[in-house]
Amino acid sequence: MSFPTIAHCIKSYTMIRYNYLCINEVDMINEVVSVKMPVKEKIRILKNHFEPENATGREARLSLVTGIHGDELDGQYVCYEVIRQIKAHPELLTGTVDVYPCINPLGMDMGARGIPMFDLDMNRVFPGDNNGAMAEYVAAEVVNDIIGSDLCIDVHSSNVYIKEAPQVRLNEDCADKLLPYAKIMNADFVWVYSSITVREATLAYSLNKLGVPTLVTEMGVGLRINNAYCRQLIDGIFNIMIELGIWQGERPAVKEPIMSTEGQVDFIHAEHAGLFVSALGEQMGHIKKGERIGDIISPVDGEILQEIISPADGIVFSLRENPVIYKGTLLARVYAVR
């Protein structure tokens, strides 16, 4: 598959964000929900709906959601590329695809993780309330629109502090149902969470409880687009579409992910405040027990305050990106091969 430049991605995102309706042979941009704001403005959540030319209404349906956090931009490129490829080959579409590129448009406009002014994480208000405040109302309408999908993929980037390798995260309560999809998602890593740690007000938790199988993907770092990670996930999405009978294109080559449970993941935290300097450069991946992950240094007295050492043979799949750290800051996650 060919991938255009980020400039094309931004141009496409601008069109999707501000156009109200666009109809051609296979796609239609619909307004999912709108809420009036002060000074004659309003929040509008849009989706791009695709179906085959001779749809019967019995086709499998995939929903692709991103932009819940306004500082997560990888999903914008992913949406662009999925839309571009479907529009380039509508004859290969045999099912329904709904693309929701921006659930938190206020946050996206400001580059803020949550909803500006309200200091609210959009991913803590699902499944929402049709009679609730603005965020709850929007969340409820989005959930209602997604219900009926055969599968939902909720695409996230990390925040501006931690870089994540492409991964799928699952609640162990839903693992049996979701693992077959997670394994063909072209991720480096599949992390199965304990149900004790699950935040119940997330989109994924709510949809899974409502009967819509939902995968959560994480990759990259906030306010950036990692082309390689996006392309990896895009191949995974088309692989899923082929598996669901939604797409008749050539099946992409996907990697076999590393499978994990929470007990196999080591969390490495800082013991000192200072600057974290990675010894891994831009690369995460395999590491041996005792190898350096990085150092915490003091720019005042020129000393290494803490050497960050891998506690086990394994895979580094999360790594501190912002170098300014404090005692207790998460520096890395290592999947330990025991």
UniProtKB/TrEMBL annotation:
Pfam family membership, one: AstE_AspA_cat
Record has Hydrolase as a keyword: yes
One Gene Ontology molecular-function label: metal ion binding
Top-level lineage group: Bacteria
Keywords (A to Z) from UniProt: Hydrolase, Metal-binding, Zinc
Domain Succinylglutamate desuccinylase/Aspartoacylase catalytic positions: 61-242
Known cofactor(s): Zn(2+)
Protein name: Succinylglutamate desuccinylase/Aspartoacylase catalytic domain-containing protein
Organism of this sequence: Bacteroides pectinophilus CAG:437
